[in-house]
Amino acid sequence: MNRPLFSRQHSLLFLLLGLSFASTGCQSLLADNSTRPSPVAPQAQTVQPVAQQAPTLSLEPGSPDFVAQIVKDVAPAVVRINASRAVENDPFGGFGPFSRETPSRERVQRGTGSGFIVSADGRIYTNAHVVEGADKVTVVLQDGRSFNGQVLGQDQTTDVAVVKIEASDLPTVKMGNSDALLPGQAAIAIGNPLGLDSTVTQGIISATGRSGADFGGSARVDFIQTDTAINPGNSGGPLLNSKGEVVGINTAIIQGANGIGFAVPILTAERVAEQLVTKGRAEHPYLGIQMAEITPELREQVNNSNSGLRIDQQEGVIVVAVQPNSPAATGGLRPGDVIESVEGTAVQRPEQVQRKVASTDIGSTLSMTINRNGQSRSVSVKPAPLPDQEPS
Fold it and tell me: How many domains, the chain?
């Protein structure tokens, strides 16, 4: 068994496992998870629209009508998703002499979130945690129509799910390019926070390429960070750019923080959603290594240890541990190896290696240049599915 070379004070990125994503941007079914907000079940209301003449809005950037025009175009394709599941509730909590003789009572857990329509025949993107464990999913459109939803697939690693309703000629959103985002660009969110349907908030893109490992999410996703207000019930709704295109799926917030929200990039969501629909599951390549970024403190600790290793590089990614019988072990990677490049591209941070692995097809060859005890060499590894995803 390989042990980590370094103390826990260093921030490590795990390629072996997809971290459990404790989302706080939705009203979740899982009320027993303390990292998520308690579900708030809004009372069903039917609001009759008041007929009025549509105002003429300006599309000019900087115009007070700019966001309003985007909302006017996109909001009809944003939906509310109500999910429920029946659970048994033992009045004695499963303890005591009467727990077996007393019949359990059934109760219903309810949660609500958001989603958006991507095809006119009723395909919808949302978060996996919005529909996780649901017995019944109901999709409510902005015009008041309600449909039963079928979950075509969900992926806990990226928190992406696809829901289908039987309908036609539905309004749809336009997809944008999440890879082209820059910090400081405008961002707009539409969703159903706290049961308040079709709520609009505006802000900016605060950062891109934010690893989930930075805030307790999945290290396999480079999230979009935004200061656009996201609250329980917003999860699964679209994050839009200034053209009204979807660039992300609003996913999570940090408890107790203001103006710090996260969204799954839409290009990641589309890739995962396509696999969910065509294969019934999403595939996540992994190598089976634990990595750390080389820092002056880390280099000093290793060089002064009794490990027999020495780091001469000023920067780079060092392999801390290798999972036995993993693709990395088969390919010849060892603890102490410093990864210099992947597929010819130099890397300095674990996140860069992760991106390269994630973009590689399972079973294909991934070439690396490593430095082992001062000597450069090439190794080839073949990413495999995450262990918990391997076919039985």
Answer: 3
